[in-house]
Write a structure and sequence with these properties.
By secondary structure, the chain is of the alpha/beta class. Helices cover 47% and strands 12% of the residues. The chain has one domain: Metal-dependent hydrolases (TIM Barrel, Alpha-Beta Barrel), CATH 3.20.20.140. The strands form 3 sheets. A 6-stranded parallel beta sheet has the order 4-5-8-9-10-11. This is Putative amidohydrolase (Aminocarboxymuconate-semialdehyde decarboxylase). It holds the Pfam family Amidohydro_2.
């Protein structure tokens, strides 16, 4: 196997895209001015940073600024703009960038059409969504056609937090939207999928959860112990279902966290993530080195083999 260090959790936005989604009501202020654009200077600086950490390729996603809008025309326009942008960027830098397609959810016919365009025409390696779709769970029955199509294709679905504070004012109103809210959203979304039986019903979908699955490594034994009476309809033991998924290694350099994820979920289920541009400079390099520090001989697979095998690159 050819070794390739692939970062599955990396973002790129243009002002045109951010302007569009802001005109539709999303607040994209936190995504601006971070060096995550497509201009030559920003891209070359990104490549130099990647090289300094030994990262060969990034898989780009617009999440959390996904084109999920109640208005179908707005959702479709934003999704097409994002995907056309990524097709152009990956076409300019095919050795360094791949991309996940953006989907105009919750509009299913349009979503399936754009998924097909992204995968079949634009060369995307999967699709990306957020941990909820306008407040609806990813396990909601309305999304069944998407899961069926992803399963039929055997493709990747990358799941990133929404930034909605898990719908809780106790998070949003206390300055914890991203530091606490994001991993809470990861935890909720992946547990909803486990209890709903999505991984077993759609075994060909390669689901990647962000941030080590949130608190899942710490909670999985508790979930196993309690699902029998709290979620008796779950079709399989949650820990078995959890090991059908993959998890990116974004853990902000905290060695005990990546060790807990490897011991709980399996090092073979971890793939490198950096959260560029939010982890930049030394933090970016630490996103790689802490995996090496924490996982010992298992680090080589996590850093250089797992994502390439998962994505078919």
């Amino acid at each position: 196997m050819i070794l390739m260090r692939i970062d599955v959790h990396a973002h790129l936005w243009t002002d045109d895209y951010l302007d569009l989604i802001e005109s539709y009501g999303q607040d994209a202020s936190v995504n601006r001015g971070l060096g995550a654009g497509d201009g030559p200077q920003e891209v070359e600086a990104r490549f130099a940073l990647m090289d300094s950490a030994g990262v060969d390729r990034q898989v780009l996603s617009v999440s959390p600024r996904v084109p999920h809008f109640a208005d179908e025309a707005q959702a479709v326009r934003a999704a097409r703009l994002a995907n056309d942008l990524y097709a152009e960027v990956t076409g300019r830098h095919p050795e360094r960038f791949s991309a996940f397609a953006a989907l105009p959810l919750p509009h299913m016919d349009a979503t399936l059409k754009e998924l097909a365009r992204g995968l079949d025409e634009l060369g995307m390696v999967g699709a990306a969504v957020t941990t909820d779709v306008l407040g609806a769970s990813l396990a909601d029955p309305s999304l069944a056609p998407l899961w069926e199509e992803l399963d039929r294709r055997g493709t990747v679905l990358y799941v990133h937090p929404t930034g909605g504070a898990a719908g809780s004012p106790l998070i949003a109103e206390h300055n914890m939207r991203w530091m606490v809210g994001a991993p809470v959203e990861d935890t909720i979304a992946v547990t909803q999928l486990l209890l709903a039986g999505i991984p077993s019903r759609h075994p060909n979908v390669k689901i990647i959860s962000s941030h080590l699955g949130g608190a899942l490594p710490m909670l999985l034994q508790r979930i196993d112990n309690q699902y029998g009476w709290e979620a008796p309809g779950a079709p399989e033991k949650p820990s078995d279902a959890a090991r059908r998924l993959w998890y990116d290694t974004v853990g902000h350099g905290h060695v005990p966290a990546v060790r807990a994820a490897a011991e709980t979920l399996g090092a073979d289920r971890l793939v490198l993530g950096t959260d560029f541009p939010y982890e930049n400079g030394d933090l970016f390099r630490r996103a790689v080195s802490y995996v090496q520090e924490g996982l010992g001989e298992d680090a080589a697979g996590v850093l250089d083999r797992n994502a390439a095998a998962l994505l078919g690159l």
